[in-house]
Amino acid sequence: MTGTSIEAPHERALALLGGQPDDATLRRYLHGLPGVDAVGLEARAADLGTRSIKTTSKAWALDTIVKLIDLTTLEGADTPGKVRSLTAKALAPDPGDRQTPRTAAVCVYGDMVGIAVESLGAAHGDPDDGLVAVAAVATAFPSGRASLEIKLADTRDAVAAGADEIDMVIDRGAFLSGRYGQVFDEIVAVKDACRRADGTSASLKVILETGELMSYDNVRRASWLSILAGGDFIKTSTGKVAPAATLPVTLLMLEVVRDWHTATGGRIGVKPAGGIRTSKDAIKYLVTVAETVGEDWLQPHLFRFGASSLLNDVLLQRQKLRTGHYSGPDYVTID
Amino acid sequence: MGFLEYAPAPESTSLVSFRNEYGLYIDGEWTAGGGTPFQSINPATEAVLATVAEADAADVDRAVAAARRAYEKVWSKTSGKDRGKYLFRIARLVQERARELAVAEVLDNGKPIKEARDVDVPLVAAWFFHYAGWADKLDYAGLGPNPRALGVAGQVIPWNFPLLMLAWKLAPALAAGNTVVLKPAETTPLTALLFVEILEQAGLPAGVVNIITGAGATGAALVAHPDVDKVAFTGSTAVGRGIARAIAGTEKRVTLELGGKAANIVFDDAPLDEAVNGIVNGIFFNQGQVCCAGSRLLVQESIHDEVVERLQRRLSTLRVGDPMDKNTDVGAINSKVQLERVTRMVEVGESEGASRWSAPCDLPENGFWFAPTIFTDVQASHRIAREEIFGPVLSVLTFRTPDEAVAKANNTPYGLSAGIWSDKGSRILELANRLRAGVIWANTFNRFDPASPFGGYRESGYGREGGRPGLTSYLQAAPAAVPAVQAAKPVTSRKGAAK
């Protein structure tokens, strides 16, 4: 991803905050945001979930979902072999249909970035150009419980190995105890660590881990905080905590992104991750994006799914649309 | 074509087959009507769906006589437990035939299938389930032991929720032990006539429910009939007044569910995105053809512009069109007459100086359509702020303080419903006490539940439907006569026995 300068969003944030990003100023700003009515939010999400997407719209939706997937493996047992298998899948998801688009990225732990870059070869690059990016989780993922130095070293290491995108976690402990300034400063520092020697910068996805934030009000505040601090993307979850992505939480984050766009003209990406396993569910997310921020957002640099098993279900649905009948799990590859 | 122009997703209409002609359902049989038959059309296409009989005064007489017979010979002798069984059966049949009923409602009424499927029909089943449970527990209705049914109920229902209003009327009446003559609206009689199949499937004894069709004259004859003990009407305030006059001085009991001009009050600390959705649901649900619609938006002046902007953005994503498409949000206006009334009121609004904004959308050529519309710069003295429009038209007014909000909200001859949007619970509770409206929603709008009483103040009518109050509207306390053998016993022991 091409670099954006760090100073610009930071200055914008200071102007919006009307002061330095310390705990008191941030608290005043974040707690002054309109509240979220949980019942209303969930009802709206459920309503969007009843849209009926058929025929040509469904075909377009399925291809778009593939193009927006960060195909993910984040296990302690990951090996170079597993990562190579994953990149092969990202490049050619359905061996029986070469028309199948590539996924947006593969998402791996930092030590696997080199393997991923190498096995993608010439196909490594910007997903907006039809290439496949490499995303790395960093900052002591998934807990984020390490010193800032370790988190920054983790980030620099992944960027140096060729990561295009960094998925960082916020310090939920600091957030929940009201140390907003610390969370803000960490995001700014990690963003800085995303810079490369040539002046460009890896794109930064900020994971809120909404399953640990306990309330929709907190999700809204953490979203604003992450955007103010310079995150390029806000991401729901690590996938290691239940609940991971839900439609209401994603809707709420999209509303923040929409309001940020209205206020500043800036475009922030959203990435629901974890728990989205079926095409039917993923289509609900597409509908929610299109009807909240507009369908412009359905591009790899503005919306992603963090998922692994979702891809095969989408491939089965694509086969069904093409051939008119359902096949089965043996007609898609296990990677 | 963009993704947002979702490909058509029409619900199949093959589930429903209306007959070409319908008679009157009296005493368990279809009979011809004495009046001039009329047609019911699909408001989205103007295609004729069926021809329906018109009941004249003699037919009304026959229907009331059948209901009286069924009351005296059968229904008043049927135990509460058995009445409950019939109602449970009806509720289950509604669930089994839910899709068919939803499609039929859409064809005859013009509302979007999404609403008929997700709101109307599930609520119909819920109403029958709720009152089925009451049928054998009338001792706990609050009228003392052994309360009695009233007798024959004459019920006249509107066209905006044809099947749901039927359920609101039939379920408590039957649970309480009354028999019924029901007249659906002349533009939407078909689901009531289809419902006869469910009554027959449930094995309800003949004459307990009689359904007669016709227009205003039929309804007037029914409510004025001397052998009707209870009148229940939902509809316009003008007709409600006429009914009140017609039955004044008689022994008849009456509940009237009339018009409204509900205030939906949005404070500056409201959850804004949810408030915007609630405003949309409040006024554009069922094309705004809802007596409790939140047609007056009272928004705190400091957030007026932001709320209007968000509303306009949200309304631009509403899909107006084919009600049978599962993605349609706003369907057709129910009739040409109603469309003309809405159009006229909007012209009045414009000529009074309010600013009109209508959502950009292509409306179908045939059928009756009106784009979702918002009026800003509306003054309290404008007619569009005073009179019920009964269409997808929202009037936006502002206020500065909670006192002003209450004063403006109450400044209407109506008083059916109101909404409050605020993150502050204490403010909501305080305001709810001061608003003169029968139903007050906090941080939501247009939510219905069979356990919750519904009804109005002043020109919105009187009496309550739903919950226990809705049941007692069809009951009277047992006569106070004390049997001779017990007369000598102390009064306290009798009271104790009642508990």
UniProtKB/TrEMBL annotation, chain A:
PANTHER family from the entry? DEOXYRIBOSE-PHOSPHATE ALDOLASE (PTHR10889)
Per its record, the protein catalyses: 2-deoxy-D-ribose 5-phosphate = D-glyceraldehyde 3-phosphate + acetaldehyde
Class of enzymatic activity (EC top level): lyase
**One Gene Ontology molecular-function label:** deoxyribose-phosphate aldolase activity
Q: What is its EC number?
A: 4.1.2.4
Gene3D superfamilies associated with the record: Aldolase class I
- Protein name stated in the entry: Deoxyribose-phosphate aldolase
Q: Which family does it belong to?
A: Belongs to the DeoC/FbaB aldolase family. DeoC type 2 subfamily.
BP GO terms, sorted: carbohydrate catabolic process; deoxyribonucleotide catabolic process
Entry's Gene Ontology cellular component terms: cytoplasm
Q: Which UniProt keywords apply?
A: Lyase, Schiff base
State the pathway, as annotated in the record.
Carbohydrate degradation; 2-deoxy-D-ribose 1-phosphate degradation; D-glyceraldehyde 3-phosphate and acetaldehyde from 2-deoxy-alpha-D-ribose 1-phosphate: step 2/2
Automatic annotation (TrEMBL), chain B:
Pfam families named in the record: Aldedh (PF00171)
Give the PROSITE patterns listed for this entry.
Answer: ALDEHYDE_DEHYDR_CYS (PS00070), ALDEHYDE_DEHYDR_GLU (PS00687)
GO MF annotation list: oxidoreductase activity, acting on the aldehyde or oxo group of donors, NAD or NADP as acceptor
Task: Name the active site residues.
Answer: 257
Family per record: Belongs to the aldehyde dehydrogenase family.
Give the superkingdom in one word: Bacteria
Name the UniProt record assigns to this protein:
Aldehyde dehydrogenase family protein
Quick check: keyword Oxidoreductase in the entry?
yes
Alphabetical keyword list: Oxidoreductase
InterPro entries given in the database record: Ald_DH/histidinol_DH, Ald_DH_C, Ald_DH_CS_CYS, Ald_DH_CS_GLU, Ald_DH_N, Aldehyde_DH_dom
Signal peptide as annotated in the record: none
Q: Which organism is it from?
A: Agromyces seonyuensis
Domain (Aldehyde dehydrogenase): residue spans on this chain: 30-476
